[in-house]
Write a structure and sequence with these properties.
Blueprint: H1 2-14, E1 18-24, E2 29-35, H2 37-46, E3 49-55, E4 64-71, E5 77-85, H3 90-103, E6 111-113, H4 118-127, H5 131-137, H6 154-161, H7 165-183, H8 199-204, H9 209-217, H10 235-250
Parallel strand pairs: 3-6
Antiparallel strand pairs: 1-2, 2-5, 3-4, 4-5
Helix pairs in contact: 3-4, 6-10, 7-9
Domain ZSWIM1/3 RNaseH-like: 29-129
Protein name: 8528_t:CDS:1
Pfam families: ZSWIM1-3_RNaseH-like
Length: 253
Amino acid sequence: MELDIEESTVFLKNEGYQVECFEILYRSTRGFVFVHPSQLENLQRFGWLTLIDSTHKMNKYNWHLFTLYVRNNHGSWNVGAHFYVSKEDSNTVAEALRIIRRFECAWKPRYFLADQSNVEANTISLIFPGLLRDAEHTAFKFRTKRISVIGIDYKILDQIHKLPFPFQQLIVIEIHAVEKRIKKGKKAPGLLSLNCNCLFFRRYLLPCRHIFHEHLYRKNKLLTNRGRRRHGTETAFVDTLRSSLEFILNSQK
């Protein structure tokens, strides 16, 4: 593990990230924070409203990846910071947030969006006393949506649920748009692969309404870029979602 952490931190530093490792001895937990300067700028400018999202078991050691998102002037959610922790507990997550605050002293969130996790709620109250109380009064606390759509394989839903909340919302909108397309008499667009030239797909690299339309109502399933046909499975489609997840979490700079 030590070698893996060292290699990861060296790689991130070479990519221009600020990186700091930490350890909570009495908890036997550890983690590391990594933030790109452009992400710190996002926190400084738009961090008054911050969303905290966690993805579990992101490496072979079953560590948890936390990501802070902020919403820019165009309504898009951008990454503000990342951190890994070996265990999801309030003290460990709080230490990571302390480091992020030290990286960007001007980050002063007025509201935090979080799911119903007690860990996240306790962490916010530790680092930002009084903030959670205000957020509750303005109803900014929310539950992470988990969609269930007829015709969507459970393996695909599992990958969608791993996406951060804002991206789950985007995919829900695209899936619901398929029904509207059908009501308007629109046919499947005739895609030959799991790629689309529409603005949504090019912007987010997520399956769009056109891909879902093909997937749900076409007898012959779409081909991957390598031409591999999905014989009764959802493998290629799940791979696309997984690639989208990796892109979102790892390529924001």
